Amino acid sequence: MTSPHLLVPLFLMPPQMPLASLATRAHVIVPLPAEMRALAELIGPYGMKFLSDNLMWHVGSQVTELKKLVNENMDTLVQLRSSSCKPEQMAALLPRLTSAENVLKRMTIIGEILSFRAMAQQGLREVFSHHCPFLMGPIECLTDVVTPDTDIKVTLSIFELASAAGIPCEVDPALVNVLAGSKTDGTSPEEDYKVACLLLVFVAVSLPLLASDPASVYNTEMDGYNNNIHCLAKAIIHVSAALFTVHNKNIETHLKEFLLLASVSLLQLGQETDKLRARNRDSISLLMQLVSDALCAPCTLLRPPCSLVHAPLCGYRRLAHAC
Description:
Layout (H helix, E strand, L loop, with lengths): L32 H40 L1 H8 L5 H7 L6 H32 L1 H12 L7 H13 L8 H8 L8 H18 L11 E2 L4 E2 L6 H15 L4 H19 L11 H15 L10 H4 L1 H4 L2 H6 L1
Antiparallel strand pairs: 1-2
């Protein structure tokens, strides 16, 4: 199978940017909408399904490796999770974590894969709409009737149909299927659910490490980061939605917990005296804004209150008050 590293780095360029202007930039993949449409026309719906399944397999492999890293740091992560309202205790626990950079790299790779797949799905949707406009309408209407009260099996069936037509879904059915089949042998559902929760904790408390990376600078011309950490937002949201759908848990509750822990971690970064470790602090705060914007997008299954979602940029007081 194709290595996921063939997709790295993947810059999400504005569609209107001419390809010629990027000719001097090495190792940049620019999958423009026209190219994605051409790909969908060339390989057809079955080819796009194979491509999607292949990409999801790579995502599942990365999640499996992430779970191993969580297990290696289980005790420390449990303590961090229970110390969200105790910044001093969190600061003392953070140095005990191992492989935090590895976690961020793997999550970034997942985001890159999902971003590429989203563009491929967009091309498929445009081609499908062109060839079968009267079929696309009813499928889109089906997705509009999904609510948080809809049976999860019905929801996933509708989303699977929509995904086959290239329509983006709040919970990716292909990712749900892959993660449901990648549970560690001999692990109980309760233990697997605990690992899923602690994975979000691991990512949240590791985010400040990105500030020390010279490449963690928001590039306005690229509309992204040179090290592709803008893809983290998509990875966090889609992996969380799929993992907690597998366990039939409330997605919103766990994303709130993620934002709380990330808020505390970023505020601690604001007190960092080492200038090298905090040199790109503002860029990491902007990254949290990307996650916040994605969570505040109109949807039915992922809808935390916007006042809470934007708390990482407004300060910790509002969240700490609830503790």
